[in-house]
Design brief:
The chain is of the alpha+beta class. 59% of the residues lie in helices and 7% in strands. It has a domain of 113 residues. The termini are far apart. Helix 2 packs antiparallel against helix 6 and helix 17 packs across helix 19.
């Protein structure tokens, strides 16, 4: 057994670290479980609560037997859609087929940990592709750099020692943010992107044009359905390298110190890339048409193009951290022997940085309806890590100095990780009453079951989000960005709950909006006053925490 472990220590270590780090990334959520108050249900909120409830609502729709998603956060959006969020309905649908009664939040986090684990394993495979002639320990160190690299931070000694990460909205400098805050559909997009890059950069090119085109077309469709910005990066990178490969045979390549700058690129077929791109374009057009015709998808697009943010180069560099400095220093060693994989990952980073940071591309991005920072990609850290480790290895040829500096860099990363971990520990508690839900409220909402009628809740309660996540039913007020005409609806709901409607006005309001149930918590209004004012209502469910009226 010991001999087997010694001979396979690297593989065992990669698997063990991948599994451990996958669990660590969701540990801020897991650590809330022992702190769950009695008589409450832990909804396991791990990031911004509206996003989180949106995702587990999509899981619930799948658990109700629906693969095609609908906007349950609004009563005036009849559109159906699959793009971007289909992994959630698929996860839920699998539990529906297997008849496994798993809460949607459990499905979400199990998927998250699983996708992280798979992604980390693929990262190591990609590192091996980038550093084929390096020692195993060098590949292992580069793998650790990708996982643990962190942003720079400030240090404060008063009133106590505090590390504050240097970050910005959408930044991916910390491992928590880099690996998509453990959001499954973002993780799956990165898995597909990385698998696609590994496919196009493989050495064995004997599939033939037809099969190669088909595989690239599948990768393109999957990325289009999950993350169009990542698809754009995918195509820009591989098409650029293919053009370089074509030019390699037609122009004289300069030599440095007697060596050709571009070597070992191999013969790459340009036709499959071009054909798969042509095949993908009609689907991209259909997706664009669907977005324009769907009120909820259009609302998301409008939100994106109205919230562009371009961090300064200084802020970006500080957030990317020490790895960026080492990677720049390692460029001569990275480019000393170029291969197709190295060029692909370099241009992935090049276009990612360019589209994320250059405001001159804003008009083009607005036309596409894409936020500039959605072009940031965790896969860029493979190039950064490979270039960094080559610098350390080539400069510090003496083993002692090499290991000492690597240890120092990892220690710095651990401090950054600790600083970000302290921030992530607070995130679940920012969800207020949607983190630890009273069990009586939880059970009460679940008694609604499936219904074609809308459910009304007070704007201040956030019970609309809870209702969609627990039942999959449509609500009058839900996820703010997808509740069309939200302000107008919130005003009407307030008039209803504050008893400022007459009985006839209230009845007309509920019937016109197809509202069949009204949720009421005791701090919003006295149930008896509601019944006295709106005599047509009947109590459907009631306890000390929640009253549900029907009519």
């Amino acid at each position: 057994m010991l001999r087997l472990i010694r001979s396979n220590w690297l593989i065992i270590s990669v698997f063990a670290i991948s599994l451990s780090f996958s669990l660590f990334l969701i540990s801020p959520v897991l650590l809330t479980i022992p702190k769950t108050p009695s008589d409450t249900v832990n909804m396991l909120v791990g990031h911004y609560f509206e996003d989180y409830y949106e995702y587990i609502t999509f899981v619930k729709q799948g658990q109700n037997g629906h693969l095609i998603l609908s906007n349950v956060f609004s009563n005036d959006d009849p559109s159906k859609y699959i793009a971007v969020w289909w992994p959630y309905s698929l996860m839920g649908f699998i539990t529906y087929l297997l008849k496994i009664p798993v809460p949607s939040q459990i499905v979400f986090w199990l998927s998250s940990a699983s996708f992280s684990f798979v992604f980390f394993i693929i990262i190591y495979v990609a590192i091996c592709r980038l550093l084929p002639k390096e020692k195993n320990i060098t590949k292992f160190f580069a793998f650790l750099f990708v996982l643990f690299s962190g942003d720079l931070f400030t240090v404060s000694f008063s009133p106590k020692l505090t590390f504050t990460p240097i970050s910005y909205w959408y930044a991916i400098g910390s491992p928590f943010n880099r690996f998509s805050n453990a959001v499954p559909h973002h993780q799956l997009a990165q898995i597909i992107l990385l698998l696609g890059l590994l496919f196009v950069s493989r050495e064995n090119k004997n599939l033939g044009h037809a099969k190669e085109t088909a595989v690239l077309f599948v990768f393109s469709l999957l990325l289009l359905s999950l993350s169009p910005p990542q698809l754009i990066l995918f195509w820009l990178a591989i098409l650029t390298v293919n053009l370089i490969t074509i030019l390699k045979g037609r122009i004289k390549i300069p030599k440095i110190a007697g060596k050709t700058l571009i070597t070992d690129l191999g013969q790459r077929a340009f036709l499959p890339f071009l054909l798969s791109l042509i095949l993908t374009l009609p689907f991209a057009f259909l997706l664009s048409r669907q977005t324009s015709s769907s009120s909820s998808l259009l609302a998301g697009k409008i939100w994106d193009i109205s919230h562009y943010y371009y961090p300064s180069l200084s802020l970006f560099a500080q957030n990317t951290g020490l790895l960026l400095v080492l990677a720049i220093l390692g460029l001569p060693f990275y480019f000393s022997r170029l291969s197709f994989p190295r060029l692909v990952f370099f241009f992935l980073v090049f276009f990612s940085f360019l589209l994320s940071l250059a405001p001159s591309f804003m008009p083009l991005l607005k036309l596409a309806g894409i936020h500039n920072l959605r072009f940031e990609t965790p896969s860029s850290y493979l190039f950064l890590a490979a270039s960094s480790i080559l610098f350390l290895q080539k400069i510090l040829k003496k083993t002692l100095f090499y290991y000492a500096l690597f240890t120092a860099v990892m220690f710095f990363f651990s401090l950054s990780l600790y600083a970000n971990f302290q921030i992530m520990l607070k995130v679940p508690y920012m969800a207020g009453n949607l983190q630890f839900v009273p069990a009586f409220v939880y059970q009460g909402i679940k008694t609604l079951g499936k219904t074609d009628k809308l459910i009304l809740s007070a704007p201040s309660s956030n019970y609309g989000l809870l209702t969609t996540a627990l039942t999959g039913n449509k609500v009058y007020l839900g996820r703010s960005i997808f509740t069309l005409n939200q302000n107008e609806k919130a005003q009407k709901a307030l008039l209803f709950y504050e008893l400022k409607m007459t009985e006839n006005q209230a009845k007309d309001f509920l019937e016109k909006e197809n509202i069949g149930y009204v949720l009421l918590s005791p701090w919003e209004q006295d149930p008896q006053k509601i019944l006295a004012k709106y005599g047509f209502l009947r109590i459907f469910f009631q306890n000390n925490y929640l009253t549900i009226f029907s009519h």
